[in-house]
Amino acid sequence: MLSFLPPRPWVAMCVALIMSHLTFAPASIFAESQAKTRETIQLGVLHLEADEIITESEGTQVLRGNVTVNSRVALEGDVTASASSISGNGKISVLNVPGLGDLELVEGPFEVEIDTGRFSGLSSLASRLNFGEIDGDLSEIVITSDGVTVSGMLSYGQESAAVENMSITGSGVSLDDGTIELGKIKFEATGTVINSSIFTADSLTGSAGSVSITLENFEISSALPHVTGGSFQAGGLSGSMSNVNILSKGISAAS
User: Fold this and answer.
1) Separation CA 154–CA 41 (nearest Å)
2) The most confident of 35-49, 187-201, 241-255, by mean pLDDT
3) Closest by CA position to 214, among listed 224, 222, 204
4) Res 1: pLDDT
5) How far is residue 127's CA from residue 106's CA, in Å, rounded to a whole number?
6) Any residues with CB less than 8 A from the CB of 225 and at least 6 apart, and which?
7) Quick one: pLDDT at residue 85?
8) pLDDT at position 235, please?
9) What is the pTM of this model?
10) Sign of CA dihedral 131, 153, 97, 246
11) Least confident of 12-21, 48-57, 244-253
12) How far is CA 141 from CA 80, 167, 216, in A?
């Protein structure tokens, strides 16, 4: 009759030591192999990265797997690169926007000029930009070194505002180098940020004819643009505003 003796303690320790090496070594090797397969290409102002870049024909390459531009903009699906543009079909997102995470912009067939980073044919794309209660319908997207600048309409409830050159980058969403048009007045913005569903600005300065208006502590939330203070000047007249809502049809006292 055969009998089996229980393993000695030192045998168990050796087995555990061997198993620990077998468990962790392949993981590190896999990570290293994954890092080595990431490929890059520079086309004009666009620095593209992908898991794989395939040359299909002279002057044409296909990028596959986790395609990004300038390490900030993600392009879904395969992307075809030529001497003048890149093109594909899928979602376009800005990655790791503070307070908002990965922010989707549009979805559909796209083409980007490599010399300018400008998207063409946006009218055929489905807009996916959303900040909680604020929706965006984009008419222009330009890829920059750290994200994008966009122009279009922001809608909140029954109201809307036109924006130009709104920046969406690794620093956040800002209109500091752009404008926002409320009703018939186009404002230059200072100290702006969109975080979750609220758009705020330290001040907005604009004019309509002979009337100039400065809005302080501007906020779009709960479907209404609101200011806690501001001033206006019309010719030789000037005055101040406090606790008002800004609507497409004009300015009204806040309830």
Assistant:
1) 35
2) 35-49
3) 204
4) 46
5) 4
6) 156, 159, 161, 182, 218, 219, 245, 246, 247
7) 96
8) 64
9) 0.75
10) negative
11) 12-21
12) 19, 10, 29
Please count the residues of the chain.
255
In a 13 Å sphere around the CA of 232, the CA atoms on its Cβ side amount to 11
Residues whose CB falls within 8 Å of the CB of residue 180, separated by 6 or more in sequence, listed in order? 154, 161, 162, 163, 164, 186, 187, 189, 201, 204
Find residue 143's DSSP bridge partners: 148
Cβ-based neighbours of 212, under 8 Å, separated by 6 or more? 205, 206, 232, 233, 234
Token pair of 86 as six digits? 């890149």
Residues 6 or more apart whose Cβ sits within 8 Å of residue 169: 72, 94, 97, 144, 146, 147, 148
Neighbours of 175 (CB within 10 A): 23
Q: What type of residue is 209?
A: G
| Mean pLDDT calculated for residue range 200-218 | 79
Indicate if the pLDDT at residue 212 is higher than 50. yes
* 34 pLDDT tier (thresholds 50, 70, 90): very low
